[in-house]
UniProtKB/TrEMBL annotation:
<protein>
    <submittedName>
        <fullName>NAD(P)/FAD-dependent oxidoreductase</fullName>
        <ecNumber>1.-.-.-</ecNumber>
    </submittedName>
</protein>
<keyword id="KW-1133">Transmembrane helix</keyword>
<comment type="similarity">
    <text>Belongs to the class-I pyridine nucleotide-disulfide oxidoreductase family.</text>
</comment>
<keyword id="KW-0274">FAD</keyword>
<dbReference type="InterPro" id="IPR036188">
    <property type="entry name" value="FAD/NAD-bd_sf"/>
</dbReference>
<feature type="domain" description="FAD/NAD(P)-binding">
    <location>
        <begin position="36"/>
        <end position="351"/>
    </location>
</feature>
<dbReference type="Pfam" id="PF07992">
    <property type="entry name" value="Pyr_redox_2"/>
</dbReference>
<dbReference type="InterPro" id="IPR016156">
    <property type="entry name" value="FAD/NAD-linked_Rdtase_dimer_sf"/>
</dbReference>
<keyword id="KW-0676">Redox-active center</keyword>
<dbReference type="InterPro" id="IPR012999">
    <property type="entry name" value="Pyr_OxRdtase_I_AS"/>
</dbReference>
<dbReference type="GO" id="GO:0016491">
    <property type="term" value="F:oxidoreductase activity"/>
</dbReference>
<dbReference type="InterPro" id="IPR001100">
    <property type="entry name" value="Pyr_nuc-diS_OxRdtase"/>
</dbReference>
<keyword id="KW-0812">Transmembrane</keyword>
<keyword id="KW-0285">Flavoprotein</keyword>
<feature type="transmembrane region" description="Helical">
    <location>
        <begin position="38"/>
        <end position="59"/>
    </location>
</feature>
<dbReference type="Pfam" id="PF02852">
    <property type="entry name" value="Pyr_redox_dim"/>
</dbReference>
<feature type="domain" description="Pyridine nucleotide-disulphide oxidoreductase dimerisation">
    <location>
        <begin position="372"/>
        <end position="477"/>
    </location>
</feature>
Amino acid sequence: MPAEKYYAGFFYTNKSGMAKLTVYTFKQINYDMKKYDLIIIGAGSGGLSVGGFMVKLGFKVLMISKTAHEIGGDCLNDGCVPSKALIHAAAVVHNAREVSKFGLELSPEVDIKKVMQYIFEGQEVIRAHENKDYFEKEGFDIAIGEAKFTAVNQVSVANTNYKAKKIVLATGSRPKKLTAPGIEKVTYYDNRSIFKINELPKKLLILGAGPIGIEMAQAFQRLGSEVTVVQHSHAILSHDDKELTLILQKRLEEAGIKILFDTTVSHFDSANTAILKTKEGIEMTVALDAIFVSIGRQLNIEGLDLEKANIKVEKEHIVVNHYLQTTNKNVLLCGDIAGNLQFSHAAEQHGRLILNNLISPLKKKLNNKHMSWVTFTDPELATFGLNEKQLKEQNITFEKVVQDFANDDRAIVDDYRYGKLILYISKGFWFQKQRILGGCMIAPKAGELIQELILANVSGMSINTIAGKVYPYPVATRINQKAVGQLKMKLITDNTKKLIQLAFKMFS
Ligand SMILES: Cc1cc2nc3c(=O)[nH]c(=O)nc-3n(C[C@H](O)[C@H](O)[C@H](O)COP(=O)(O)OP(=O)(O)OC[C@H]3O[C@@H](n4cnc5c(N)ncnc54)[C@H](O)[C@@H]3O)c2cc1C
Ligand SMILES: NC(=O)c1ccc[n+]([C@@H]2O[C@H](COP(=O)([O-])OP(=O)(O)OC[C@H]3O[C@@H](n4cnc5c(N)ncnc54)[C@H](O)[C@@H]3O)[C@@H](O)[C@H]2O)c1
């Protein structure tokens, strides 16, 4: 840091020949203070979604990243991209094994180094347009180092001070650490280390059955690990519909994954032995070669000197309002750090809201009523809009439609008759607009199949549009029409039948 006071002095001789010293003191002048319209701390999904557009609009933007390698954030480096590449590799291996159904025997042994290479190569393709040089060419200023607030609108990085009218804090989150006696004895992985392994763990113990734990459980089981998942509550994927998560759980268990509920680690006896404990206090021993910890996320708020910018923290979360403003209205939160839904697309949604509110007098509030997410297991589990509990809490009347796939032609030929779609549709009569309020689906590629339903939800489209659409036979999305059709069939009562029969007599 530069000194706060500077001193300057000079000697001179007065008229009588006496030597004199005059000393001037003055306060620090920040010659190195750089000024911006916007500073973004963190170059992940959130930071990038705000910065790119502001630069295109001609604003002076500084983006700060802890290290050059971390540009792209968790999504590119340790999250979505490597996990989805791993899931793809595991699906290829799984499909190769599946050919035995048709008389061709293959028992692929996985070379995990090649899988890691595949992941790395995919990341490198994306890194070509998510790196320091690229963003500098695009018009960003980039500072590398840990940012700290030094005053209300001011941050410092590597001894340089920066000031801006607005600051976006997008420092993301990191995996929570598991603490248990003896943990130092075991090979410990989390999402920051699992995509760089050299050896496939023969026995993998996964802690936490959220989206990370469940996606990785299936991928590693398919690659050849013997997987046990330990979850300290009674369900996998607790943010999704239980009726659908039970279908997924059954399929994972049938594939050989062991899931232990209401259980957690008590301690580790050795590098290869975990002692687990159920809620009832029953102990059991599990053999392992490594553990993978996915027990939730911790927000990256430490070391930022938030108090110097008057930003309040309560219960390890930054206090934030619906406009994503902190207690310092010029500092906005974007992405995981906002403590809301932790998805790349949620970070992008925050980014869009912030952009709107930076340049428009019509300020928008964060609203998750159209949010969606997909867990990329096989089958995928996709969820969107409002769920049953939220609809009831908000006193919104709705009809629940449950469509199973047992008799769907596409599900029959492609072997996913276990699939299920649940829709919540607003109440209405005959031609009155009925709209899709939310729903969820389990099926292979459910994340893609559900997109037209999400569009209908977001745009407030009448279900008549889906009911009247002509779908090529046998695309998988015909199931969406079938579900909506269930409501239309309810309109056929004794009275409507009589009316239609009368119309037949009169008009045919
Ligand atoms: C294994 C895994 C799989 C996932 N899969 C999906 C998925 O399929 N779909 C999905 O939508 N989401 C997925 N997510 C979640 C998604 O990755 C995150 O929600 C998203 O990356 C959050 O973006 P962010 O910008 O908030 O934070 P990040 O992407 O983590 O970016 C934060 C950046 O800030 C930097 N930073 C931190 N502190 C400082 C500091 N003091 N100074 C300067 N820079 C700092 C960090 O280095 C980092 O680059 C997954 C996450 C994981 C872990
Ligand atoms: N496909 C996707 O979109 C995707 C994929 C992966 C991650 N993500 C995002 O990343 C976030 C973090 O994922 P996550 O799975 O780490 O977190 P999570 O909080 O969703 O799940 C962690 C699970 O671990 C359990 N748990 C906590 N402590 C435990 C312990 N000591 N022993 C056993 N179980 C324990 C919790 O009950 C919880 O069910 C998710 O919320 C999601 O938003 C998204």
